[in-house]
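Quick one: co-fold with flavin-adenine dinucleotide.
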Amino acid sequence: MSNKKAIIIGSGIAGLASAIRLSGQNFSVEVYETNSYPGGKLAEIHKEGYRFDCGPSLFTMPQFLEELFAISKKSISNYFEYSKKEIVCNYFYEDGTRFTALADIKKFAEEAEKKFEVERDQIFKYFKSSKQKYDLTSTLFLEKSLHKLSTYLSLDTIKAIIRINSLGIDKKLHSYNDEIFKDARLVQFFDRFATYNGSSPYVTPGIMSMIPHLEQYYGTFFPKGGMYSITKALYQLAVDLDVKFHFESEVDQIVVTNKKATAVVVDGFIREADVIISNMDVVPTYRKLLPNEQAPKKTLKQPRSSSALIFYWGIKKEFPELDLHNIFFSKDYKKEFEYIFEKKEVSNDPTVYINITAKNEPNDSPEGSENWFVMINVPSNEGQDWKEIIQRSRKNILDKLSKLLKVNIEELIEIEEILDPISIESKTQSYQGALYGSSSNNKYAAFLRHPNFSKNIKNLYFCGGSVHPGGGIPLCLLSGKIVSELIEKDFND
Ligand code: FAD
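Sure, here it is.
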């Protein structure tokens, strides 16, 4: 039995990863979670014979998940199975073009050559440069704390800093793509990777052109049982490692004594620990749990990433032309992003994402039906009239899909659930309902994200999508790794 105790606030994916790692470092770990279930944004809905994954639909970099089982000396196959997808995504353009992005790079380039004005060698060159950027920067920007001097004394960091100009930091992602490809449809395809961290391709720096590499080189995967099985597997692993979970237990305060975090307050009770890790969004962590402590104002003021409006539809028909992941592009991408990030509104022609897990998991919908997760990117909540936006967007989405799929979709909707920025915030405490914490619409964004530790309060750490290295499942898993390494160092020094 360990004599050191850690308390984790929240059981999002990063909270679960941190719990597993600290348990391996011989801490006794307790997790307090407001909801009655683990997973935060990585949750699921069951309704009238349909099952939906609520949040993430794209599973990349499974090695970060594998690592958690390996360090715990457990066989992942007892918890979790996943397979590589041959078709990454189906793309539908308003001009009638359909493009199937294949996992195999040669087949991808062949298909691109058929559908767009491009030679396959240009595609290979793009991915090569994307790989170089990732290889050069991933250790610095993703795997270490950016806020510790030791990070800057490593050879990897020095190499990255010397070559910083070649990384496309001073160019916007769209300009970078537009200079390389002459076919606007292909530019739109590569621009869309900005949405992987909730940013705009017209503002985010060209270095984001490394994101396609992750999808193309490492692949995209589908977990057996759907995305929620990621949460289930990590939760079960944590339970097997003796992590104690308290559901429906909201933390109201972090107790700080002599600049040291010593306890949390839950339901009026003080729960002491040697280490406190907040997996709660960093903005409400300061505002609600640490109201009397000095907050890092500049960090908390960073603009938020985009949010999402999602319709979960039970559809009484099967669509053989659709795959697990499908994207119906807007005609005018620039306008769509101007609406989201400048006007803080939603254009009438949004890009529509449709994910259908029933393609792989027949039990996710009744026979002859499909479970549609229909999402558009929207701004984070700044008090917009969401009732009006939802009503208008629902009509626009239905008109667009009915036209492209040549069938009246509204007549096929059997059941409906809706998630919007307000409900995302109320269900997960993400400030303004942002999906990925602060946006990356700034070349210094990585440095402006909150560190994984508090500079003023000892024994207080942070993990999850709102802090370094950022949002999305792989990065959240890495934040758990960075936090556990910092704690190991702090407690051994
Ligand atoms: P969160 O999921 O934010 O969970 C935080 C948890 O802490 C919650 O359970 C909350 O209840 C709990 N909590 C908060 N405050 C307290 C408190 N005071 N006391 C107790 N408990 C508390 N990522 C991808 O990789 N691929 C995708 O395709 C993708 N698509 C997405 C689509 C949508 C619609 C959404 C919503 C997100 C998507 N993401 C995607 C992003 C991804 O889901 C998140 O980055 C990630 O799940 C965030 O995990 P987290 O660890 O930050 O915790």
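If it helps, Residues 67 and 158 are 27 Å apart (CA to CA).
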